[in-house]
Amino acid sequence: MPAGGPTGGHVLQRALGDQRRRVGGASLLAMAHQACEALVPVVIGLTIDEAVGTGSAGALLRWLLVLAALFLVLSTCYRISARFAEGAGESAAHRIRQDLAARVLDPRGGADTGRLPGALAAVATGDARRVGSVASALPYALSALTGLAVSAVALLRTSVPLGLLVLLGVPPLLWVGHLISRPLERRSEAEQEHAAHASGVAADLVAGLRVLKGIGAEGAAVARYRETSRSSLASALRAANSRAWHDGAILALTGVFIAVIGLFGAHLAMRGTISVGELVAAVGLAQYLLGPFQLLTYVNGEFAQARASADRIAEVLASPPAVAAGTTPLPSPVAGRLRLRGLTHGALRGLDLDVAPGSVVGVVARDPAAANDLLLCLGREREPDAGTVELDGVPLADLDPGEARRAVLVAHHDADLFEDSLLANVRAGADGDAPDVGPALAAAAADDVAEALPDGVDTVLAERGRSLSGGQRQRVALARALAADPPVLVVHDPTTAVDTVTEARIAVRLRELRRGRTTVLVTTSPALLAGTDVVVVLDGGRVTAEGSHPELVASHATYRSAVLA
């Protein structure tokens, strides 16, 4: 990649370069196919002149064999070239998706900055497919040029005026056809927009069906969808009418053009300038030439779309990392001592904090933004604006982000589950193929969740765990973080959707399971805070109070309002 990051041109070059052997093979075969296609009208004309016109059965058989050989070669070349071309396109798109996935999953981050997950998914699917299509389209472009060259030679050898008429008449015909297609393009785009809007409305109604029934708004919802559906139908009918007019107009123009060529060729034949067979060949080549020109129009459109998609892909690949890649090795073994000095980032203002190894520390932040910024810095997802975070005396900024996150695991409040079994979700962050996750399930009270499921821990969860309740999802996510058993575990509000009895049980079991391992609980839960060794209060981006949970409840009004309100 270039020093300044890849550009759209580099992405296109990479897509073609990686598949140059397939693209080259597909191009040669496609060129042979088009050359044979162009020769078919010529052979038919020769058959008429040398066999039909003379009544020679031997010549007829000979030219029929030549014609059969042409069809055999062109059909074989087409099948193989199409297979190579499509394979090249799919392989190029796959390689681009791999590059995008590697960039998005890079421990240094940064690819998602300013982009929604759906936007990244669209780049990795639609844009990658469009760029990959360049590898498929290039052989077709070369084959079309080959077909034009062979046709030009054949026509000019037959009759220079007739050849010039065909070669100079086809481009304006295609240009007029392009003008005719513009209304269809506009109406098709409107049709797609209305259809997408109708689908979106339907999806919203289905997702909120329970709420709509609860408030008795089914009638209004049905009326809204009916209006949207009618608008979509009207747009589809307008597009269908436009398509019918477009196809009829193109067919009429083509017919007029072929008729002009036929009349002019007939005039030349009547004057004895060309033979009947040459006339048939010229008309056949005129009809054939429409194909290569249309193919070039298609390839041009593919390249235009691919260039725009390549620019979007290049923007993702060239995204600056959110954090630097350190080279200092991780301390071994990791004791788990955290030391924050002058930490400034977002809502944090010169934060100083010491976490002893093996301790359980509670952090109460009045400002949710301060809690979030603290998690981002501890997880090396963002570089602090100022100050340092140290692990056993080594600044996190000097460590590789991946190594740092294996030592300091930050479990965010909004952690998602995967569409897999409950057991696979819990094992996702653990080392080894078959770790014993029983203690983690019990500590998070997720064993109760498994017992309530039809297949226990082997029950497959829906996308993002939506088949579970909010509290059940939180417990499974907490079990996943505990099963990873990192030297330092930072957990953010893991029990906000859990009932108080279960929360109290989790607080006791979590402390037991994490005994001897550093644990930081960023939460306002009294049950969890009661089980900590010390609690610190963040206000204004700094530590304003420190002590045990009972001490702070008794002496600190801000703490009481944040925890007991």
From TrEMBL:
Protein location: Cell membrane
SUPFAM superfamilies per UniProt: ABC transporter transmembrane region (SSF90123), P-loop containing nucleoside triphosphate hydrolases (SSF52540)
Transmembrane segments: 60-78, 137-156, 162-180, 248-270
InterPro entries linked: ABC1_TM_dom (IPR011527), ABC1_TM_sf (IPR036640), ABC_transporter-like_ATP-bd (IPR003439), ABC_transporter-like_CS (IPR017871), P-loop_NTPase (IPR027417), Type_1_exporter (IPR039421)
UniProt cross-references to CDD domains, sorted A to Z: ABC_6TM_exporters
Annotated keywords: ATP-binding, Membrane, Nucleotide-binding, Transmembrane, Transmembrane helix
Signal sequence residues: none
Residue span(s) of domain ABC transporter: 330-565
Gene3D superfamilies: ABC transporter type 1, transmembrane domain (1.20.1560.10), P-loop containing nucleotide triphosphate hydrolases (3.40.50.300)
Domain ABC transmembrane type-1: 25-305
Topology of the protein relative to the lipid bilayer: Multi-pass membrane protein
GO molecular function: ATP binding
Major site of localization recorded for this protein: membrane
Entry-linked Pfam families: ABC_membrane, ABC_tran
PANTHER family, alphabetized: ATP-BINDING CASSETTE SUB-FAMILY B MEMBER 10, MITOCHONDRIAL (PTHR43394:SF1), ATP-DEPENDENT PERMEASE MDL1, MITOCHONDRIAL (PTHR43394)
Protein's name according to its UniProt entry: ABC transporter ATP-binding protein
Biological source species: Streptomyces bikiniensis
